[in-house]
Design brief:
Blueprint: H1 2-7, H2 9-17, E1 21-26, E2 31-34, H3 36-42, H4 46-49, H5 60-76, E3 83-91, E4 97-109, E5 112-121, H6 123-140, E6 145-150, E7 158-161, H7 163-169, H8 173-176, H9 192-203, E8 207-214, E9 220-231, E10 237-246, H10 248-266, E11 270-275, E12 281-284, H11 286-292, H12 296-299, H13 313-324, E13 330-338, E14 344-356, E15 359-368, H14 370-431, H15 438-469, E16 478-481, H16 482-494, E17 502-504, E18 513-516, H17 518-534, E19 541-548, E20 552-559, H18 566-569, H19 591-601, E21 605-611, E22 615-623
Parallel strand pairs: 17-19
Antiparallel strand pairs: 1-2, 1-5, 3-4, 4-5, 6-7, 6-10, 8-9, 9-10, 11-12, 11-15, 13-14, 14-15, 16-18, 19-20, 20-22, 21-22
The site of adenosine-5'-diphosphate has 21 residues, from α17 and α19.
């Protein structure tokens, strides 16, 4: 061994200068020479190793195998034959194992066999390889799609795609490699995000965008892409790394949420979100702002109670109790809402409990029920009006029936006197047979005529009642000559005149045509004129005065009769009422009542002034608007 050392001092000198470790062992596996580099790998001094068995450098677990291996090697190998033995493990003095690469060179010196082992510490390489493998595996098993493109090749083709990219896109690696990434866009090229990517790649910058991409089966997915350029030492971009993230679910949720938020915000119903413990408004929608007149900023932080004038804190909490106790999901209150300008409107407040994160909130939806209220009010008013009309119709019906019954009994009484007068006069007329008795006959005939007229008037009044009971549509407005009507009424009334009574015909009516219901004007005038005749003594004057304006006709009937006692005057238009000073005179008490009803229906009026034993003036006013007859 010393011989080898001695003879090979030149070798040692040389071997210390090279970067590999050199160990020379003899057939007995003893280390006969070792260079500085190898000593450094194993952490020993030369003295500690020379003459030692090679085993000292072999980890225990490999010692046995190694010995067999080396023995076999000495036997079989020939001088000069080089054997590369890969990836063995050495053991440092500290006991630490490390990977090493060994090339074995057998040689012969002074007829002895040796083996020269060239040793390389590859722990750093192995470490690097392991870490590289780890990284590759990590990239390949990442959830994000990863592609690497070669920026130096034409059209920047993909040279690497990980498994997630295959999974997201549905394409296999062979379909992906050597293509530009744009195939993911299909025909959907006109996207803002795509434009951003193009610009970034052109300028060699990083970017992050959200784009619509399409899987192999044509389905759309939202891709969050971030692109980063990789530069070499010279600053030239050699690659781009693209990281893809399928955010379809997030985008869909976002779209859904945005849609719901839009509905919330744009709803015209007022929606408020309240903090449950203090009832402060944390959010309000557009409808709430519009209807209340407050801005969102003004509403935020304000207590809802500021908008509900009919509630204080205690009352509102009491109302909310069922939803706090969870005995009810929702409660509805009808109340008033006070706008910013102080005006109030009726609302329905729907309240329900909800959660925002961990906090309890109250969702409050307010409906403006002004329309509903108005509708209900209108409905109630209509029902009330209809009920009133029905009651009126019913009482009119009852009244009419009573009237008819009363009238029949009254008429049967009222008819008796005129009929017996007619009978008497007719009997007497038959008895006056001589020519000279003509004057007497005439007197009786006049009585007969007057009584028939009287009966006729009663019947007319009766028939007229039915007419106004049935309503306005039975009136017939026409243009007629007033003088013609007055002439007929006066002509008929003349027959009723008592001795010395005179009717003063009105002036300036000859050319007067008026637009009214002719029959009612005639009926009213007849009634007033007959009453004046009936309730005035002989030798008195009855004056008829007419004034006609553009739209009013005024007819006055003035008599010098018994008048109406003051205490009876307020009842004079009531049906069947008769003043106490006429009870011995024939009459029914319905004439004035009928006249008033008709005149009122036609938009006119009837009034009177009277003094007992001096006379009475009745005034009729009719509207005579020509347009009503057009
Ligand atoms: P009647 O058939 O009793 O005349 P009316 O309805 O025509 O019924 O009149 C009602 C009452 O008004 C009469 O009973 C009478 O008391 C009073 N009256 C009406 N016109 C006159 C008049 N010109 N002078 C005095 N009293 C009158």
């Amino acid at each position: 061994m010393r011989k080898f050392e001695k003879d090979s001092s030149v070798f040692r000198l040389l071997s210390d200068a090279i970067s590999e470790g050199i160990i020379v062992v003899n057939r007995e596996h003893e280390i006969v020479s070792i260079n500085g580099r190898a000593l450094k790998f194993f952490g020993y001094t030369r003295e500690e190793l020379i003459g030692q068995s090679l085993n000292i450098l072999i980890p225990n677990r490999f010692k046995k195998v190694h010995k067999e291996h080396t023995t076999k090697y000495f036997k079989s190998s020939k001088t000069g034959e080089m054997v590369e033995d890969r990836c063995l493990f050495g053991q440092r003095k500290s006991g630490e194992e490390f990977p090493l690469k060994v090339d074995l060179h057998p040689f012969e010196l002074y007829e002895r066999n040796y083996v020269l082992a060239l040793v390389r510490d590859i722990s750093q390489e192995v470490e690097f390889q392991q870490s590289f493998n780890l990284q590759t595996e990590a990239i390949d098993s990442a959830h994000n799609g990863i592609v690497i493109t070669d920026a130096l090749l034409p059209d920047n083709p993909i040279i690497y795609a990980n498994r997630a990219f295959e999974k997201i896109t549905g394409y296999s690696r062979s379909e992906i490699l050597n293509r530009n990434c744009r195939f993911l866009q299909n025909q959907d090229r006109n996207q803002e995000g795509v434009q951003v990517m193009r610009n970034a790649i052109k300028k060699g910058e990083s970017c992050q965008v959200e784009v619509r991409n399409y899987r192999k089966d044509g389905t759309l997915f939202w891709n969050e892409v971030s692109i980063n350029p990789i530069k070499n030492e010279d600053g030239i971009i050699t690659h781009f790394i693209g990281i893809q993230n399928d955010i379809t679910l997030r985008v869909n949720i976002e779209q859904e949420v945005n849609y719901l938020v839009r509905i919330f915000n744009e709803s015209l119903n007022e929606i408020y979100v309240l903090e449950a413990d203090n009832l402060k408004i944390s959010h309000a929608n557009f409808g709430a702002c519009i209807n209340s007149g407050y801005t969102l900023e003004e509403l935020r932080g304000k207590s809802l109670l500021a908008l509900l004038p009919q509630y204080n804190k205690a009352k509102f909490h009491k109302a909310l109790e069922p939803i706090f106790r969870r005995s009810r999901e929702k409660i509805i209150l009808e109340t008033l809402l006070k706008r910013k300008d102080g005006s109030e409107y009726p609302v329905e407040v729907h309240l329900q409990s909800s959660k925002k994160g961990d906090n309890r909130v109250i969702i409050c939806i307010i409906l403006d029920i002004t329309e509903k209220r108005n509708y209900m009010d209108r409905l109630e008013a209509t029902v009330e009006e209809r009920t009133r009309q029905l009651q009126e119709a019913l009482s009119r019906e009852i009244e009419l029936n009573e009237l008819k019954t009363k009238f029949l009994s009254m008429v049967s009484h009222e008819f008796k006197t005129p009929l017996s007068a007619i009978l008497t006069s007719a009997t007497l007329v038959g008895k006056y047979q001589e020519t000279e008795s003509q004057e007497k006959r005439n007197r009786h005939l006049k009585t007969i005529k007057r009584e028939v007229k009287h009966l006729n008037n009663i019947l007319n009044d009766f028939l007229s009642i039915e007419r106004f009971e049935k309503g306005k549509e039975l009136y017939n407005l026409t243009k007629f000559s007033l003088s013609k009507v007055i002439n007929e009424v006066v002509y008929n009334a003349n027959m009723m005149l008592k001795s010395g009574q005179r009717i003063n015909y009105p002036k300036d009516v000859d050319d007067l045509t008026v637009c009214q219901d002719e029959k009612i004007v005639s009926l009213a005038l007849t009634n007033l004129l007959y009453n004046s005749i009936k309730y005035s003594p002989e030798d008195t004057l009855i004056d008829i005065q007419v004034t006609a304006g553009d739209d009013m006709l005024v007819i006055k009937v003035i008599d010098e009769g018994i008048g109406i006692p003051e205490k009876d005057q307020r009842f004079i238009f009531e049906r069947y009422f008769r003043a106490e000073n006429v009870l011995l005179t024939q009459g029914t008490g319905i004439g004035l009542n009928i006249v008033k009803s008709h005149v009122d229906n036609l938009g006119g009026s009837i009034s009177f002034s009277s003094r007992e034993n001096e006379g009475t003036t009745f005034t009729l006013v009719f509207p005579i608007d020509d347009k009503a007859c057009a």
